[in-house]
What we know:
This protein has helices at 13-25, 37-47, 63-73, 85-91; strands at 5-9, 29-34, 51-54, 78-80.
Amino acid sequence: xxxxxxxxxxxxxxxxxxxxxxxxxxxxxxxxxxxxxxxxxxxxxxxxxxxxxxxxxxxxxxxxxxxxxxxxxxxxxxxxxxxxxxxxxxxxxxxxxx
Length: 98
């Protein structure tokens, strides 16, 4: 059976590592972890994830920008894991956030 593939978009290395360990322990395949908008877009194109977990603020660009660009090529379910709830709610009131 094919494992569910998850792309992590997170600029904090410790959070990215912890998410990767948690998801892999739960049986998911973390297909990539990226810290920039451009890196995330390239990884999504390369790996075709089943789910994206994205932070709002990145080293370069934003998680929101990455999701917008990724969605132009392929609709992928996504969850924002961020403390910047207001910024996401302002442009995406129906966004799923944790």
